[in-house]
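Hey,
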Amino acid sequence: MGEDPSAESTAVTESRDPEQIREEIESTRQELGDTVAALSAKADVKAQAKQRIEDTKATVAQKKEQLLGKAREASPQSAATVAARASDQARQNPLPLAAAGAFAFGFLAGRASRR
């Protein structure tokens, strides 16, 4: 459009191989097909709206996951996590746990013997 057609075309007097011409035609068809597909995608308003909705949904879901992750980090630890940590500490150093158990057993035995 608006270009001088003779600027890029080869001279008529130059002989070209028919196979080369076929390849150029096929290349031009491919480029034209890509251009038509791009133009039809731009003209499809309904598809663009759907794509924009899908992009927005994906962004909202990602933000939600980020916020939930931050909330989980900021909230107090759950009882299961605390119990697991206490269990690990008891395995690593059983002496305080054994002492507490012995104290509790002695206390309960003393109360039971008074009755």
